[in-house]
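Box S1 | Example of a co-folding query
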Amino acid sequence: ATPTALMVGTGRSAKMGILIKNGEVLEAANHVKTVVFDKTGTITEGHPQVTDIVGDEATVLRVAANLEVSSEHPLAAAILDKAKAEKVDVTAAENFQAIEGKGVQATVDGQQAFIGNDKLIADYKLDATLSDRMAQLQSEAKTVVLVGIADQIIGLIAIQDAPKASSAGAMAALKARGLRTVMLTGDNQRVAEAIAAEVGIDTVIADVLPGDKADHVKQLQAEGPVAFVGDGINDAPALTTADVGIAMGSGTDIAIESGGIVLVKNDLMDVVRALELSKKTFNRIK
Ligand code: ADP
Ligand code: MG
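Box S1 (continued) | Returned holo structure for magnesium ion
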């Protein structure tokens, strides 16, 4: 590949909002066999909304909101939005502690409280009614978090994050080019599968702890070069491990720094366009 041709390729793409760091990245994109996607903020809009509260709504929402004040997680924003809309009294809980990939713990009303998934509260037993309701909400593609205080689960909050308009089309286009698509997420298997079915993703790897995303990328690399598409702090290691790291422009600074390609418009069709551009550039110049 001649440097001039590379500059033509990357210059044109930059105008479309596809920033490619260098020629090696563009060349690596030509060999990709598998495209792996983070879920929240990558396949989905990343603006989750509370849809259902199970339990005594006012109490569940107040405890949840107090816990989430100090959290930077997108789920926290959804809960705080809902609390604001319902005019809930929100005070930051003391002794706040975020537990990566699981949830949050803190002191509310002088008692130990928590919000998060079933990995956070593996020690607590869910009664059958709650666990059935949880499964039902998850199969509707809703992320469900459990809210507890003083060793007692007091309710559930279901949160929905719609897929981006571009997601289904991008998956179809990648498949038409013979590429395998994979979703890699910290969210629950049932939720992940419901969203994968909506947008047409081949393989779902769910319940992945943030520190394990890069390992999954390595395993997928056994079958050929991998592109990883993500936006979060926890996606940075996977972005650098992948043969091609593709970061959302809306993503965290660390994700953007870790990506070899940045999609300014957050449009997943731009993943397809980037791969196409690579193919055109490297099949033209020999
Ligand atoms: P993703 O891969 O979808 O970005 P994360 O690894 O950030 O997911 O989080 C995985 C799961 O951990 C969430 O789906 C949620 O169940 C739980 N979780 C993490 N942080 C929080 C929080 N602040 N509040 C409630 N639940 C949380
Ligand atoms: Mg994300």
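The radius of gyration is 20 Å. The domain at 49-160 is CATH 3.40.1110.10 (Calcium-transporting ATPase, cytoplasmic domain N).
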